[in-house]
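Bumping my old thread because nobody answered last time. Still need a sequence for this structure:
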């Protein structure tokens, strides 16, 4: 067993699991599950939940099931089922042959409900949804018994059977557990366990017109599957007494529910309901839009599975909710890409530079290392010729103090190539716009070093105009604006959306090795950040890149200030 011989240094969930394996509870077995509802794509909050469930199983030599909680026929779709499986696999987890659907248990769940009625612990209620709510009471006032609470077992069995047979319209009747209308825990005030919904289910079609509620389906599915530790997020804490009540009332195998804090990340929308709204209202192109905090979106943006797992490791597992700064997530992907992404030259906002003393028609090839962090990554060649592009912002006609890049009369290094000096600026006479620069190069500085030991303060990235490939580059920001508690209080989601979450740059010039960048290929554009070839829109010869993250690591500063 156990990587965890001792409980020290473990989070509270693992401590509990370690304790149970030590004492032989559940015969020392560890069996977890991840139960997503297939009503949307997984976001990074879900990744925390399944990362925890799958890794605990792995660490304790146990098993983890994937179970689709598909008990609500109206919201669920096969597209979501498929995306969820893809995303879990992408993060490196596998459920083996244990792929389950709560809908597979509909008959068993129905039989359990009949059993509960026979035990005198459930009744068919004719109150409409509004009345059920009104009878439920509030946090400060107890509820009232339903007038249908004391129906006989026979009558309940008959009515429940007829609910199933389709005799009644939606909402006409429910099956409710008979618990305690004055319980301080509202979840125990005779909760509904079955409701009537005449709707096609994505797997069972029209076989059923009554559907179990989450609390009924969830605990019993755990029990049916022999789950030992049912690990879920903190909002289910108040449901635990009900989880326990159902399993005790039926006298069936009883797993234990353990709750942990949900993941919240600044600037990220981590609610499926809201993300669905963002997609439906066209704020993004779809669930896998690289601005989305879904795993599909993060993948398309260039995040690696390792970086997300590292983020989870650093966030840890706690009992109380707290918000994580999105800078930590960025930090994790930056660290990972720094180690593995090849460095390339890409000019996002090109300015032509003519090197007047460089022979027309001559082309030289310079060797460039792919990744100074990784000696195995090798090198490639870069063509150099008389006309190159540099970044427009790397030139200032009238440079401010501390501007060490190109300016009239100044010399800089073109990385891996030569020193060049700016001789003159060619402008559009009517607009004053800078059209191109005229420079000279020093042939003695081949490869980027001066034999006379002379130094330059700036090193620029560049591409040869003749060899450059046109590319589109998308600079991405967060979907949520910078938070402002005063302005945002009570605001609608639509008002919180950042209007400039995507800036599309066309006519960028990238080095020739990027012409056929494979979809999903990840690079560091020197001095610009980490970029990923878009898996949908990038085509051979016409690459499209998303900026995964900039180079500036704000986390280091935050961590320092916070003493982390
Ligand atoms: P959302 O609140 O985004 O709609 P959900 O809880 O309704 O999500 P489910 O498909 O029911 O979505 O979630 C599957 C599992 O993922 C649940 O056990 C839930 O506890 C967990 N989960 C969802 N969001 C988070 C989060 N932000 N942090 C940690 N766990 C989460
Ligand atoms: Mg849920």
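Sorry it took so long. Here it is:
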């Amino acid at each position: 067993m156990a990587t965890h011989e001792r409980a020290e240094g473990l989070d509270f969930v693992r401590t509990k699991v370690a304790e149970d394996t030590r004492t032989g509870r559940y015969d020392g077995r560890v069996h977890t599950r991840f139960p997503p509802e297939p009503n949307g794509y997984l976001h990074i909050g879900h990744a925390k939940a399944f990362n925890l469930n799958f890794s605990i199983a792995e660490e304790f030599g146990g098993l983890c099931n994937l179970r689709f909680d598909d008990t609500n026929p109206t919201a669920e779709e096969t597209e979501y089922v498929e995306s969820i499986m893809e995303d879990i696999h992408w993060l490196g987890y596998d459920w083996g042959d244990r792929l389950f659907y709560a809908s597979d248990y509909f008959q068993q769940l129905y039989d359990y409900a009949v059993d509960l009625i026979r035990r005198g612990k459930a009744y068919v209620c004719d109150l409409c949804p509004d009345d059920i709510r009104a009878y439920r009471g509030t946090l400060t006032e107890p509820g009232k018994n339903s007038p249908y609470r004391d129906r006989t077992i026979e009558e309940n069995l008959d009515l429940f059977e007829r609910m199933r047979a389709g005799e009644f319209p939606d909402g006409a009747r429910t099956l409710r557990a008979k618990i305690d209308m004055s319980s301080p825990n509202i979840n125990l005030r005779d909760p509904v366990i079955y409701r009537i919904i005449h709707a096609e289910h994505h797997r069972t079609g029209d076989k059923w017109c009554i559907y179990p509620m989450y609390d009924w389906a969830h605990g019993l599915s755990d029990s049916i599957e022999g789950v030992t530790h049912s690990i879920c997020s903190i909002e289910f804490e108040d449901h635990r007494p009900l989880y326990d009540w159902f399993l005790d009332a039926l006298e069936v195998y009883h797993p234990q529910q353990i709750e942990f804090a949900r993941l919240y990340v600044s600037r990220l929308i981590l609610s499926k309901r809201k993300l669905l709204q963002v997609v439906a209202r066209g704020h993004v192109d779809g669930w896998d839009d690289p601005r989305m905090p879904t795993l599909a979106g993060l993948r398309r943006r260039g995040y690696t599975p390792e970086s997300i797992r590292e983020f989870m490791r650093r966030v840890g597992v706690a009992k109380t909710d707290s918000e994580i700064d999105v800078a930590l997530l960025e930090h994790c992907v930056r660290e990972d890409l720094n180690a593995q992404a090849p460095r390339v030259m890409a000019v996002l906002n090109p300015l032509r530079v003519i090197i007047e003393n460089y022979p027309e028609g001559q082309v030289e090839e310079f060797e460039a290392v792919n990744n100074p962090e990784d000696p195995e990554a090798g090198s490639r060649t870069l063509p150099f010729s008389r006309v190159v592009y540099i970044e427009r912002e790397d030139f200032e006609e009238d440079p401010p103090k501390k501007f060490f890049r190109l300016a009239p009369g100044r010399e800089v290094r073109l990385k891996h190539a030569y020193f060049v000096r700016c001789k003159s600026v060619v402008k559009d006479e009517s607009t004053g716009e800078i059209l191109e620069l005229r420079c000279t190069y020093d042939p003695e500085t081949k490869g980027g070093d001066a034999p006379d030991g002379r130094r330059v303060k700036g090193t620029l990235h560049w591409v040869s105009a003749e060899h450059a490939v046109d590319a589109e580059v998308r600079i991405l920001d967060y979907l949520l604006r910078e938070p402002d508690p005063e302005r945002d209080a009570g605001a609608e989601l639509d008002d919180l959306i950042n209007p400039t979450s995507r800036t599309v740059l066309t006519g960028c010039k990238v080095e020739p090795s990027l012409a056929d960048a494979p979809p999903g290929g990840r690079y560091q554009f020197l001095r610009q950040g980490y970029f990923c070839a878009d898996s949908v829109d990038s085509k051979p010869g016409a690459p499209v890149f998303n900026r995964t993250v900039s180079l500036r690591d704000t986390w280091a500063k935050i961590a320092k200030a916070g003493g982390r």
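The first helix runs from residue 12 to 23. Let me know if any region looks off to you.
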